[in-house]
Amino acid sequence: HGLDVQEVFGDEVTLKPADILVTMQPNVSLLVPSADCVSVIAAACSKKFLLAAHVGWRGAAAGIGAKIISTSQLYGIQPADLEIFLGPAICGNCYEVQLDVQQQVGKQLPKSILNRDKFIGVDLRLGLQHYFASVGAIVHNDQPCTFESTNYYSFRKDNITGRQGVLARLN
Questions:
Q1: 150: buried, middle or exposed (CB in 10 Å: 19+, 13-18, 0-12)?
Q2: Quick one: which of 104, 107, 93, 100 has its CA closest to 36?
Q3: What's the confidence (pLDDT) of residue 130?
Q4: Residues 79/132, Cβ–Cβ less than 8 Å
Q5: What is the pLDDT of residue 155?
Q6: Is residue 163 within 8 Å of 35, Cβ to Cβ?
Q7: pLDDT value at position 164?
Q8: Burial class (CB in 10 A: 0-12, 13-18, 19+), 1
Q9: Which residues contact 142 (CB under 8 A, 6 or more apart)?
Q10: Low-confidence stretches of the chain (pLDDT beneath 50)
Q11: Is 102:121 a contact under the CB 8 Å cutoff?
Q12: Deepest in the core among 17, 35, 53, 61, taking most CB within 10 A?
């Protein structure tokens, strides 16, 4: 749940722990495991480029949205050339957090803040969607809430450790 980046060439036996994986190598697949956190897949429209990221509240508060964009730019990809897919994750209506967590995330992703009655929440996907769109990327955010859906694992719902994954391949 940080900002570490790992480039993947396809012949690695092991990778260092990282929240962002990136490749420009054809026939390489990237996997993002998650429970309630957001899996982010970014691809370039004009050249071979694939990025996969795991975004939890700590990464969001640390600025992982901006890190995804700056990492893409290091590879010569501008935000307007990115198509970004946000995977299944817990929605703001189900993701109740402490006020300090909401404030930390809100500094980076102001549109993620959700308050109603005594409910203090964050919607990481909504915050990321607004952030990526604001820098010019094409964003897809149409996946279900992991807490509400019976098809996905949710740590907050099930209270047991488990994961699902988003797999993307660069052809």
A1: exposed
A2: 93
A3: 98
A4: yes
A5: 82
A6: yes
A7: 86
A8: middle
A9: none
A10: none
A11: yes
A12: 53
What pLDDT is stored for residue 157 in this prediction? 84
Amino acid 12: pLDDT: 80
CB 15 within 8 A of CB 68: no
How many CA atoms does the CB half-sphere of 123 hold within 13 Å?
19
| CA gap 112, 92 in Å, rounded | 8
- Give the model's pLDDT for residue 106: 97
H-assigned helices in 16-162: 57-62, 64-74, 99-108, 124-134, 155-158
96, β-bridge pairs: 121
For 126, residues 6+ apart whose C-beta sits below 8 A from its C-beta are 92, 111, 112, 141
| Residue 42 near residue 78, CB atoms below 8 Å | no
C-beta atoms surrounding 16 within 10 Å: 8
Q: Tokens in use for 44?
A: 């370039």
Q: Which of 47, 58, 5 is nearest to 30 (CA)?
A: 5
Q: Can you give the pLDDT at residue 47?
A: 94
